[in-house]
Amino acid sequence: MTRRMVIAILVLLVFGAVRMPFEAELEKEHKAAYFHGAKLDLSLREKIGQMGFLAALSGFRAFVADVLWIHAHVLWERTEWGAMKVDFDAVTSLQPRCVLFWSQAAWHMGFNASVAAFEDPKQPREALRLKAQHEYFKLGEDYLLHGIENNPDVYNLYADLALLYEMKFKDHCKAAEYYARTAAFKNAPVFYHRFQYYELAQCPGHEREAYEALLKLYKEGENERLPTLLKWLGILQEKLNVPADQKIYIPPAPNP
Amino acid sequence: MTAAAPIATKHKIFSPARVTAIASNTLLELVRLKVFYFLLLFALLIIGSSFFTSKFTFQEQFQVLKDVSLGAMSIFTWLLGVLATAMLLPKDIEDRTLYTILAKPVPRFEYLLGKFLGVLLLLFVAISLMTGVFLVILYARQQDALANAARLVPAQALQEQLADIRAATFNKNLLPGIVIIYLKSALCAALTLLLSTFASSSIFTIIMSVIVYLIGHIQAIAREAYLASQTTTALTKAFLAIVALLIPDLNSLTLVDDIVVGNAISTVLFVKTASLGLTYIGIYFLVGYFVFSAKEL
Amino acid sequence: MSTPAISIQNLTKVYPIPFKREKVTAVQDLSLTVEAGQVYGLLGPNGSGKSTTMKIVLGLVTPTSGRTEIFGRDSNTVESREDVGFLPENPYFYKYLTGAETLDFYGKLCGLSRAKIRDRSKELLKLVGLENAADRRLGGYSKGMLQRIGLAQAMIQEPRLLVLDEPTAGVDPAGSREIRDLILDFKQRGITVLLCSHLLEQVQEICDRVGILDHGVLIREGVLGDLISIENQTEIILENAPPELLAQIREMIGKSSGRLVAEHRPQKTLERYFLDVTGPKQS
């Protein structure tokens, strides 16, 4: 070691000390902009192995996630739902900012695995099949809730969750809430603001609220007067006993 | 010919012309080593990746294509930067071309700068070519997907589908992402140059550079632990401090994984991140020069 | 008196051995002057400190103590190298460059203008006999051609001093002869040459002055002729001498106080013989 090398190392240490606060601050800003959100912890290492973990750590986690994702797809073709979940957990830990992964993982659990569980020919007792089905609904819900935690700035997962509550849990109040949160995004497709009221119409105690909202949309003009909106308007008018003279929308007489 | 007074013009302290001569010669030297064969590998890799994803939705296909392409860009530019830089000085010393150059009125600073710029130029050419191949393939796949959609998707849903396809392919944040990949590889090259002024063999330089690369990605964890810890022992704290102070934070220059999946990077954040990368490159180069300037050749 | 081409004063170079307390002394208290216009031969066995001395003169290595100058400019300064051309031992230039491109590259390093480089390049390629190989890549050059392009690059900026390290190592006799002739040609033009070699015969042929280094110490130094002539002997070489003349001479020697030490037919050197039988037929 020459004297210069010692000085060089000292300079590097000083540079390290100068950059440290800047880097810590930059890291915070990166995280605030949703960078570096991956959870690279020991439980992930168990799932993806030493090599995969090392690759993920050295800046290739997107690639590792893709490989696992393709693997999960192979498992899907063999309907190995449990193994798929292991892959999904790893993939979503690696790429928490990938909405597609959360969304698809939830879809596979909530819509595919749940149906398979309900139709399981090896399980004769319906109660147990129903229970299994409900567990898969919950898994789907879990993925979407965690996905939203990591991606609160994207509407897609709110919409997926609303759909899951609507179709699977039949929980229209929650579906209405999540459609409303979806609709609050400027870039969300326009139909979500109608969907929230269709669901609200089926949420006990909120019929009046739904009716007024739908009526407001109806008054906005032809663009909003879509068949489903008209259908719910008609149903709510009856349900809320709106006097005939106050009925804005007159449903066509049923075809003879 | 006469042996009169020297014909060289008055010696300049710093001459861009000399640096350019060395840099372009270094680039030529590296290109002659046929390093661009890896481009073929790159193209095969990203075209090949589509075979695995043919059964997937177009979003998934495009995402895999982008992940594989940008991942390959990261690893190729990094490898290229480290390997090319590690052999720069040892090769010139071994062939004694270094002596013929430094025996001319060329300051060592200019020699080292020229060599390093040659590598940076090589990395720039490499990443530009890869970006070109990547964009062409992405564009071709997008057009293919658009044509398929036009054929298969019913009219009322077509516009939305086409918009989805476009959104899934090109994303304006890709470019800053690629710039950061370049800076990261340049940083690793500068670090390798610094290590090679210390080291006596290229193998040692390469191994050290790889180790620093691996630790660099978890340096942030050490820093966080160092800044936060009150409970750890003095020994642990000293260890954490050394890692945090000596090793570069490479994770801060690893943004593309998140950008591919749609994460946006603001101009301010990009500028800050890029400045950090440039600062590292500058400091590593200068420290490398400091050691090299007194090296016995 | 004009400024000497090389001036070395009390030069000492000690290399530390990494991770050890021991040190190696490569050059010890060396003082040496090479006057402008001389061809100076620096001799010594391998490891005698020749290369180290040369590297210090060229500023590639910093001395532990002492000072070296090229035409009055300190070797530590970059400027001192404007006046020196260097050809290292067994150099490999960039294989992918042609002869002309090589000279172009080194010309740029010397800060020469494009036009100047073109002129110098043409002139030097002609001088070293590589005009026809100017556009061939160095990868296809023979050892002798490489040395000659090396000489040309060393001379690109018209330096007044040429430093050559084993310029004929590994070159065949014909190539070796060509290089020797080139060095003599440079000498004719008034260029100072520092030649490091252990090929004594070659040094003897071209050097005016020699220094002999051993274990980092300059043990002998002086004008070549003075160093090796045998003061009390005289050599007479006769051509077409009839036997009677030889008998007369022997008789005269017998009468004098001198003594006939040896009488034999001079032999040409093997090199001369080799060149005569392999070289192009002289007209």
From TrEMBL, chain A:
- Protein name (database record): Tetratricopeptide repeat protein
Species in which this protein is naturally found:
Chthoniobacter flavus Ellin428
Show the taxonomic lineage.
Bacteria, Pseudomonadati, Verrucomicrobiota, Spartobacteria, Chthoniobacterales
Automatic annotation (TrEMBL), chain B:
- According to the record, the segments passing through the membrane are 35-58, 70-89, 116-140, 174-195, 201-222, 234-256, 268-292
Alphabetic keyword roster: Membrane, Transmembrane, Transmembrane helix
Q: Which residues form a coiled coil?
A: none
User: This protein's superkingdom?
Assistant: Bacteria
UniProt xrefs under PANTHER family: ABC TRANSPORTER PERMEASE, SLL1107 PROTEIN
Recorded protein name is Uncharacterized protein
Organism (species): Chthoniobacter flavus Ellin428
Automatic annotation (TrEMBL), chain C:
Spell out the PROSITE patterns in the cross-references: ABC_TRANSPORTER_1, ABC_TRANSPORTER_2
Q: Which domain of life is it from?
A: Bacteria
Where do the ABC transporter domain residues begin and end?
6-240
Q: Does the keyword GTP-binding apply?
A: no
Report keywords, A-Z: ATP-binding, Nucleotide-binding, Transport
Which family does the UniProt entry place this protein in? Belongs to the ABC transporter superfamily.
PANTHER family xref list: ABC TRANSPORTER, ATP-BINDING PROTEIN
The name of this protein is: ABC transporter-related protein
- Species name: Chthoniobacter flavus Ellin428
